[in-house]
Every structure is written in structure tokens, then in C-alpha cells.
Design brief:
about 375 residues; alpha/beta; Rossmann fold; nine-stranded mixed beta sheet; three-stranded antiparallel beta sheet
């Protein structure tokens, strides 16, 4: 990627009136992002989602000047920009309708790890919540040490989850509600620095962005969208953890929560999620593994895959999918998209055809397997 391309990629996110959804519509109408800033006005007017007012904002010279400033910042601080079309952009997040056009990342964890869990909860964590979080991540470490743990680096359950992950040598990423030029709260700076060596920090905000209240809601969609599932440990009836859980539910991601004592203020949110059937009740990580089908590894009969290919005609795309399933036995949809590097729309069509041919089945947890 050249600096010039990066200027335009950052620039589109700085244009007043262009949010992530409109930006992706614009990108889909262009052969190259640079055209947005280099084409003449009458050509830009042909793009359906661009009004004259937006075109005027695009031509504001301050947009690219600020983008150049941001490039200097990310180069100085070894930050990796991840544009929506980049191969290393988080694939799970890419599936979400309101995914950020660009993410800023500093760290060494794989944002497309085979298993990613988000852990969230109240800022007023009790001894029970801290214990549940610690045990949860000990169990994750024992069974699936390659799992990436994501949270928001906030007070309470968030930072408890990050610190527990670090103790267990699990990679952990903090999603921030501000630019990567600061850490909020400042009390978690040492934890954040430690995370850079086994995990990282992620944000869709440019430097100099302060942690305004509305930014935390935007941040929560990344915590929900980047993971296979979200686990709520403790939560009041209102708060960021419940917002994250509801966003994850809207993304059709699995949500889990630990039940709490009836009437306990910081269990009301968890109990409400269970009551409203937006989250599955769990008492340990083993329940999560079971519901996600991570611990199911059925053995295929000898020669089974060979006979399938003998009697059922498969096209090249279908063979690629069945070959992957024959090796891994069970794979989630988002992992298949990562392994194949296909858009979700294409993969869904291929999976449908294979189901119609009686080759595969979809199990609970969004898991696909050969029949």
C-alpha cells in the first residue's frame, strides 16, 4: 500500500456526512478509492449516494491534510491501518453492516484467529464476577489456548478479563473508544502496555479523538462483531455490556451469560438476557464450548469422502469446501470465509447447494459438517 492510497482511505472516513455505510456504498461504485478525491465534480455526481453537499465536503482541503497528519502519527507509533478491503481486515467484522471502513491496530495478535471470544460486564465487578471471569479463562486456556480474548479495557469485568487472559498467556485485544494516542482510563496503562506483547489495542478512531460517551457505543459494535461469541459475566439492567450483547444478537452471533442472584443489581442485566432469550445461560466455559460445538469431533467412516465424490458431481468451489470439511470435521461459517478468502454471499450459495445435494449439514452454533 502506498502512502497516497492510505491518504484516500483515511480521507473518506474524515468527510463530514459520510459514515461507514455510505462510505462502503461509495467504495463499491469506484474502481479505486483515489477517484473519490481526484475525479471531477460532474463524474462524482453520477454516484447515487453522493449529493452536491457531500461532494463539496470531499473537496474540502482540510480532509486530506488531516489524513496526512494521521499517517505521520501511525508511522511514528507503528500502528497498522486495516482498510475494509484489506486481506487482513477482521473477516468477522467485515460481515457486519456497520463495520468500520478503517481500523487502527497496534499489537501482534491475529484478528482472524480461529476462535475469538468477547468478554464484557459491569464496571462494578463483584468478587463473584471476578472469580467467574478468572475460571472462564483458565478453562479456555486449558482447552483452546489459541483463543483470542477481546474486551474494552474499561473498569470492572473488562480489565479483569484482559488481566486474566494475560495471566493465562492468552492473546487479548482491547477495543478503545478513542484514538491510539492515549489510554483511558489511565489507570489501565500498564495493562495496555503488557497487552501489546500478547494481543494489542484496536480502534476505529483517529488520534486526538477523546473518549466521549457516544464513542463507547460505537466501540461496542466492534467488540460484538469481531468475535464468534460474546460472554456477559455481570451486568446491570442498563449499561455497555448489555448494549454489546444486544448488538451481538443483532449480528446473529451467539451470546452467553452467567446467571445471577434474583434482585442483585449487577445480575439483573444477565437474567434479563436469559429471560428475553437473547443469551444462553452458562455456568462455565465448558457450556460455551458445547453450545459452539467446539468440542465436537465426530469421526468420518473410512472411505466416506471418496464415495461421496464418486457418486455426486461437485464443481470446483464445492470440492474446496468439502475438502476443508473432511479435514476439520466441523467448521463455523466465519472460519470457512477466512480459510477460503471468499465473500459471505458466495460461500452461502455454495453451502446451500451442498446441503441440497445431501453432502453437508448445519449444526447448532453455525457449524457445518459433512454428512
Amino acid at each position: 500500500m502506498t502512502n497516497q492510497n492510505l491518504i484516500y482511505q483515511i480521507g473518506i472516513t474524515l468527510v463530514k456526512g459520510i459514515g461507514n455505510i455510505i462510505a462502503k456504498q461509495i467504495i463499491g461504485n469506484l474502481d479505486d478509492i483515489s477517484q473519490l478525491f481526484t475525479e471531477k465534480k460532474h463524474l462524482l455526481e453520477r454516484i447515487p449516494c453522493l449529493s452536491r453537499r457531500l461532494i463539496a465536503e470531499i473537496h474540502n482541503p482540510n480532509v486530506l491534510t488531516r489524513a496526512e497528519q494521521e499517517i505521520r502519527f501511525i508511522e511514528k507509533n507503528k500502528i497498522t491501518p486495516l482498510f475494509i478491503t484489506d486481506s487482513d481486515y477482521p473477516k468477522r467484522m467485515q460481515e457486519c453492516v456497520d463495520s468500520p471502513v478503517i481500523l487502527y491496530y497496534r499489537g501482534n495478535a491475529d484478528l482472524n484467529a480461529t476462535k475469538i471470544i468477547s468478554v464484557v460486564g459491569t464496571r462494578n465487578a463483584s468478587a463473584y464476577g471476578r472469580d467467574m471471569t478468572g475460571q472462564l479463562l483458565r478453562d479456555v486456556k486449558e482447552r483452546f489456548p489459541e483463543t483470542l480474548i477481546v474486551s474494552g479495557l474499561a473498569y470492572g469485568i473488562d480489565v479483569v478479563a484482559h488481566r486474566a487472559a494475560l495471566r493465562e498467556n492468552l492473546a487479548t485485544v482491547g477495543v478503545l473508544a478513542h484514538g491510539l494516542d492515549r489510554i483511558y482510563p489511565a489507570a489501565h496503562r500498564n495493562t495496555a502496555v503488557e497487552m501489546l506483547n500478547n494481543g494489542g489495542l484496536l480502534s476505529d478512531f483517529i488520534s486526538e479523538t477523546i473518549p466521549d460517551r457516544q464513542n463507547f457505543v460505537k466501540r461496542n459494535r466492534i467488540i460484538a462483531g469481531i468475535a464468534d461469541c460474546t460472554i456477559v459475566v455481570e451486568s446491570a439492567i442498563k449499561g455497555g455490556a448489555l448494549i454489546t450483547a444486544n448488538i451481538a444478537d443483532s449480528y446473529n452471533r451467539d451470546v452467553f451469560t452467567f446467571p445471577g442472584k434474583v434482585g442483585d443489581r449487577y445480575s439483573e442485566g444477565c437474567n434479563s438476557l436469559i429471560k428475553d432469550k437473547k443469551a444462553m445461560l452458562v455456568t462455565s466455559a465448558l457450556d460455551v464450548f458445547s453450545e459452539m460445538n467446539w468440542d465436537v469431533q465426530p469421526k468420518a467412516a473410512a472411505g466416506q469422502s471418496v464415495q461421496r465424490n464418486l457418486f455426486i458431481e461437485l464443481n470446483p468451489d464445492e470440492k474446496m469446501v468439502t475438502n476443508l470439511l473432511s479435514k476439520a470435521k466441523n467448521i463455523q461459517l466465519n472460519i470457512l470465509t477466512i480459510e477460503l478468502n471468499w465473500p459471505v454471499s458466495k460461500l452461502s450459495n455454495v453451502l446451500f447447494e451442498l446441503e441440497m445435494k445431501g453432502m453437508i449439514c448445519c449444526k447448532p452454533g453455525g457449524l457445518y459438517a459433512l454428512i
